[in-house]
Design a protein that fits this description.
GO biological process, one term: proteolysis
InterPro entries: AB_hydrolase_1, AB_hydrolase_fold, Peptidase_S33, Serine_prot/Carboxylest_S33
Strand content: 15-25%
Helix content: 25-40%
Keywords: Hydrolase
Protein name: AB hydrolase-1 domain-containing protein
Structural class: alpha/beta
CATH topology of the largest domain: Rossmann fold
CATH superfamily of the largest domain: Alpha/Beta hydrolase fold, catalytic domain
GO molecular function: peptidase activity
Length: about 525
């Protein structure tokens, strides 16, 4: 079933002509947002530093050249695409004139065609195409690496010059990995560094790149998937002058003051339980399989078994498989097939029962927290504006401990409930790669003075065309909370669907993007 949002949840669409291209840093600073908060263009209170990003941009840098702050690579090819790499030197902290610098990487992508008679690829490198910035989901994950023109990338490149930015701390953007973060001498030093890796500075980086890369520093379209949509709403709040239009897919954030993590976890609980029920209804045989694994782990020495990397798998750790297994289109199947191979076969009479290496290795690979620890360290902070999360997921789980107690469920014959998008403090004890960062994680969980990520007045006064795909059964971005925020964004147009889950852009990107762009260009009627 597909529908548009009811009229009570959509404010009248506010179209506006583009009033001119911003050509100087002074204009960027003066128009940094509709109603700049105190301290925006200064170095004191640090709600945002968009004008700093603009003023630090080197106006001599163009799409065809490089500068000390922007190094552009040469064009290269993958099937039906032409690509070029860009590296930007940006401040770690935009509020400091003498800030340490980091590198932010972005990949430029255009359509290309292979010419057999010339044994080469020719593309749209020289064409005057509008720019589209893709903001990746996360936090803490790099953009995909294109191997061919397919899916949503193919659709975008039909119309745009696509920019795939590795958000700071990921991919090739000064990556924060277990090995690189080991350079810090104390947990406090690491925590002080990590506070600069949220949506506010991701948007600062995006503005820095736009001013360097887009001809005449014109505005661009932003496509935000999941957490990338959260970043896009931050962009709308504080730097709307850089935006031509915004497309959101499964990515409308809660924007309340304080820390909204408690509200998010409570709101997501109902859908999480429903996803568990649907999984066991599809694979009822897995109820007993999971019971058996939970009991085996609980009865093992220390309450769990060792993982290949040196971590420890416990019943509560097993439940975290729901993070990836319950919320995407093929997650149920992946989870089921993983449990198919949970046990080693008995090759020798009397050999003790043991969990297979395949299963243990698959468990470690399931969430990528060893390669992308930023997700675990920063996850709850994405909900914080002026208050601490205080390990919200753990507290919300404790509110309903009977339902989430895996061993109790196994003993009583009830289905074991897998948990959803939640990071728990004990993960920093049980996941080997996270162990060195436990103290830093605790510091971040208790931090109260997080700067704002959203501004309701700016969103209420929004003039940027915005269209959003809202998935009714989204396990990660709660439908009700998304609708509450949508009611605060003037002119937003909503496409509500239960045809897709959180992964609609990946599952059928062309259709999703056609729907959203059609709503903005008038091809899709409001009702």
């Amino acid at each position: 079933m597909l529908s548009h949002a009811p009229p009570s949840l959509i404010k009248p669409f506010l179209s506006r002509p583009f009033t001119g291209i911003i050509t100087a840093a002074t204009r960027l600073c003066s128009t940094a947002r509709l109603n700049p908060p105190a301290g925006l263009c200064g170095l004191g209170s640090r709600p945002f530093a968009v004008c700093a990003a603009a003023s630090m941009a080197d106006s001599s840098s163009t799409t065809s050249g490089s500068s000390p702050k922007h190094v552009a690579g040469t064009w290269y090819s993958v099937p039906e695409l032409r690509l070029r790499d860009h590296r930007f030197t940006v401040p770690l902290d935009y509020s400091l004139a003498a800030s340490p610098k980091i590198t932010v990487f972005a990949r430029e992508v255009v359509s290309g065609d292979y010419l057999p008679n010339r044994d080469s690829m020719v593309g749209k490198e020289e064409q005057h195409l509008p720019y589209l910035l893709y903001l990746q989901g996360g936090p803490g994950f790099e953009c995909m690496r294109p191997t061919e023109s397919s899916g949503w990338i193919h659709r975008v490149c039909e119309e745009f010059r696509l920019i795939l930015m590795d958000q700071r701390g990921t991919g090739l953007s000064t990556p924060l990995t277990p090995s690189s973060m080991s350079q810090f001498k104390s947990a406090k030093a690491l925590a002080d560094y990590l506070v600069h890796f949220r949506a506010d500075n991701i948007v600062n980086d995006a503005e820095f790149i736009r001013v360097h890369l887009v001809p005449d520093t014109g505005p661009w379209t932003v496509l935000g998937q999941s957490y990338g949509g959260f970043c896009a709403v931050t962009y709308l709040s504080f730097a709307p002058q850089g935006l031509k239009q915004v497309l959101l897919t499964g990515g409308i954030p809660p924007i309340g003051n304080g820390c909204t993590a408690d509200a998010v976890y409570r709101a997501c609980r109902e859908q999480l339980i429903l996803q568990n029920e649907k999984f066991y209804k599809r694979y009822p045989q897995d109820i007993e399989v999971v019971h058996e694994v939970v009991k085996f782990l609980a009865e093992s020495e220390g309450g769990g078994v060792s993982l290949p990397s040196g971590g420890f798998l416990t019943p509560r750790g097993l439940q975290t498989l729901g993070l990836s297994g319950l919320g995407s289109s093929t997650g149920f199947e992946r989870l089921h097939y993983m449990f198919e191979r949970v046990w080693d076969p008995p090759l020798v009479p009397g050999a003790p029962k043991q969990i297979s290496y395949y299963f243990l290795k698959s468990f470690e690979s399931w969430s990528s927290l060893d390669t992308n620890p930023l997700y675990a360290l920063m996850h709850e902070s994405i909900y914080c504006q002026g208050d601490a999360s205080r390990w919200s997921a753990e507290r919300m789980r404790d509110e309903d401990e009977t339902k989430f107690d895996a061993l109790k469920a196994a003993k009583e014959g009830r289905p074991v409930v897998f948990t959803g998008e939640m990071i728990f403090p004990w993960m920093f004890d049980e996941i080997h790669a996270l162990k060195p960062f436990k103290e830093a994680a605790n510091i971040l969980a208790e931090k109260k003075d997080w700067p704002p990520l959203y501004d309701k007045k700016s969103l209420n006064d929004n003039k940027v065309p915005v269209a959003a795909a809202v998935y009714y059964e989204d396990m990660y971005v709660n439908f009700k909370l998304a609708m509450e925020t949508a009611s605060q964004i003037a002119g937003i147009r909503l496409w509500i669907s239960n045809e897709y889950m959180h992964s609609g852009l990946r599952d059928n990107g062309s259709r999703v993007l056609d729907q959203l762009s059609g709503m903005l260009n008038g091809k899709k009627p409001l009702f």
